[in-house]
Amino acid sequence: MEASAPFVPASFDPPTGLVDGAFVLEPLGPRHNESDCAAWSSSLDHIRATPGFPWGDWPHEMSLAANLADLEMHERDFENRAGFTYTVLDPESGDVIGCVYVYPLRRRNDDGTAAEPIPGAASVRSWVREDRAALDEPLWRAVSAWLGAEWPFERIEYAARD
């Protein structure tokens, strides 16, 4: 069996963030645990209604310790270049107000389950807290432009906003 292509080329340096007047993106990690958990857990129904979600069985209630394990997984994925998750921060307070996920786009089996990744293709999802709902479309627009300008993908699936 042939090894699959890497998600991003070895020569590509993943961006360490994006700064916009309304938000700042930085790689998600354990240091964001409390603020991240507060952000998504305050907005479960809102996130589920966001274009591109639901994403598997998330979001669902979980403990702070379980959230920490999730953040550690995202940090490992970033370090291993398997996927890139960014926290969306308020530029003034530094509070987590959302999240952006950039992961390989995968083919689907006949039963709908994920199969092998599609080379050069990314699946992108993002959400913002319910109290920051007005930021959803500007975030989508900024991230879409950033992906097109700074990332090496030939194909990007990112649910459009109205």
What does this structure look like?
The protein has 162 residues and is of the alpha+beta class. The chain contains four helices and six strands. It has a six-stranded mixed beta sheet with strand order 1-2-3-4-5-6. A hairpin with a 5-residue loop joins strand 4 (96-108) and strand 5. Helix 1 crosses helix 3. The longest helix is centred in the middle third of the chain and has 16 residues, at 64-79. The mean pLDDT is 91.
Q: Roughly how many Å apart are the termini? A: 42 Å
Q: What integer value in Å does the Rg equal?
A: 15 Å
Largest sheet: 6 strands, mixed
Which term fits the overall shape?
A: globular
Question: Would you tell me the structural class of the helices and strands?
Answer: alpha+beta
Report the portion of residues in β strands: 25-35%
Global mean pLDDT:
91
Q: What order do the strands of the largest sheet run in, or round the barrel if closed? A: 1-2-3-4-5-6
Low-confidence stretches: none
Number of strands: 6
Instruction: Give the helix proportion (percent range).
Output: 25-40%
What is the tally of helical segments? Answer: 4
Query: What is the N-to-C succession of helices and strands?
Result: EEHHHEEEHE
